[in-house]
Amino acid sequence: MLLTLCMYLFVFAEISAAQDREQKTRRLEAYYSYEYLTPHDDHGSWHLLNLAYYDQLKRDFNYFVNLGAFSRDEGDAVLGNAGAYKDWSPSLYTFTSLSAGSNSEYLPKFRIDHDFNIKFGPSKSIVWTLGASYIDYHDVHEDVILSTGIVLYAQDWIVNYRLFRNSSSPGDVVSYSHLISTGYGREGWQWTYLNLSFGKQAYYATQLTNPEEVSQSSLYVCLKHRRWLGKDYGVFIDTSFFKLKDGYEKYSFSPGVFKEF
Fold this sequence. Notes:
By secondary structure, the chain is mostly beta strands. It is 8% helix and 72% strand.
């Protein structure tokens, strides 16, 4: 369940960058992520190596492919992800993403995300987003996520609010979460994002002797910074904090590099 938020934040940042990209058309990037969990004896540390490729085939069409290798106490796993951003008119663009993970407790077997984005205002600087996601896990669980939100583009600023409604099966357990994101920068210079998410993580725990509904409050704070060191290359770093009530706390650090061509 926790992967839902992390994947969405990753996709959101890349959509924003794709909209403003007018210099280089392709980007290759790699990063390493280290996550420290407490209580550490129970959860250990998590590691991730990630490689991603972005391409702008046409001015109105961008796509990416992404491969991540995970290492945790529960076992090693691999996640593949591909997505596309498409302008249909001056007032409408869409984003579609497909993901598949190897057999593990923490990755989805299959996931699909799709967003409709409608632009408003004289300069089309306000975007209303309607989204839907479906996640099939390697056990019996499935999630259906509906979301809506508003994005405001104001010169070098991007401000976003989004509400998520998650329905988890079995049990048809419903929970809600919120995302608030503020970004500053532009392509070729720097991007800095501050993301805040909070809400509930709820599902039906079928692995218990007596299955029951589990509902836990969660808080996620993430600071992301990307800096161009030259015309076509640079570095980025993400740091975040996650807290799951009656569960664990997680501190993460993710340095990376990118090259455009």
